[in-house]
Design a protein that fits this description.
The protein has 277 residues and is α+β, with helices and mostly antiparallel strands. The protein has nine helices and eight strands.
């Protein structure tokens, strides 16, 4: 009962925290889509495996997504590793801390830790910011230590951050209106800021909105880049739980069996208790 009350008490806080952050988009992934998983594996080894490892996943397990060991060896292994080795990287913890301020985490179970929706939104909301150590920032995870790993695919973008805030009188400490602060970061992360007073006489929603604009000459259009991220997230979810499809099928079969057994158990119960008054 105490645990239940504590959980119910935390609900408003969780809702407030979700509302205060960037909106999380739904990831359109499908663990049965082998083409998507193979494309995600290619993106992972080309753009992620330089810093992040997946030490609980072996290369030869990728045969589960329709690849042969020869294809894995020729297209996905660029070092002296063997097909039976785990997906480790040479970058050590000490080197990672020196380069990024924090060691890049292993991505073996990042899908189960963060969830597909969070990863999908996170990889699509990087933007240039000249005031950060890496030159990058993120709408979902502000001040992220990791620079944008897929920036060559996504291309440069202009980011606009609009915040509506209360205008507080410094003397009386009372609200006298609302202000709109607009921050524009160009393709290089150079900031342009302005603050203006909003017309009075009505209430405004206090909060922040972030929007992105990609140039017409981007290497991948926004939709194409979203598909690339979808494939990568699909693969990250696969390495986090390779047996997810089998598990769901077994679960459905078990439920049907239990339902079938329940019918006989119910009939048996009626037979035993029919003479009991």
């Amino acid at each position: 009962m105490r645990a239940l009350l504590a959980a119910l008490a935390a609900v408003p806080l969780l809702a407030w925290g979700a509302a205060a952050g960037y909106r999380i988009d739904r990831a359109p992934i499908d663990p049965r889509d082998l083409v998507s998983l193979q494309a995600g594996a290619r993106t992972f080894v080309n753009y992620c495996l330089n810093c992040h490892g997946a030490q609980y996943m072996r290369y030869n397990r990728l045969t589960d997504i329709g690849l042969t060991e020869a294809q894995i060896r020729d297209n996905l292994i660029f070092t002296g590793d063997k097909v039976g080795d785990t997906m480790k990287v040479a970058l050590g913890v000490r080197e990672g801390k020196a380069l990024f301020g924090a060691a890049p985490p292993d991505l073996s179970v990042i899908g189960r830790s963060r969830g597909a929706d969070w990863l999908y939104t996170y990889l699509r909301t990087f933007y240039r910011d000249s005031k950060t150590a890496t030159g990058w920032n993120n709408a979902v995870f502000p001040q992220a230590a990791m620079p944008h790993p897929l920036w060559q695919l996504q291309g440069p973008r202009v980011t606009t951050i609009q915040s509506t805030i209360e205008d507080i009188d410094p003397n009386t400490k009372k609200k006298i209106g609302y202000l709109k602060h607009t921050l524009v970061l160009n393709e290089s992360g150079i900031r342009t800021e302005k603050t203006e007073k909003l017309p009075g006489g009505k209430e405004y929603h206090v909060g922040t909105e972030i929007s992105f604009a990609s140039p017409a000459d981007a290497k991948l259009a926004t939709v194409a880049y979203d598909f690339a991220v979808r494939d990568l997230v699909n693969f990250l979810m696969f390495i986090a739980e390779p047996n997810v499809v089998t598990r769901k099928i077994i679960g459905i079969v078990v439920l049907f069996v239990l339902g079938f057994v329940f019918i006989f158990a119910f009939l048996l119960k009626k037979e035993y208790w029919k003479d009991v008054k």
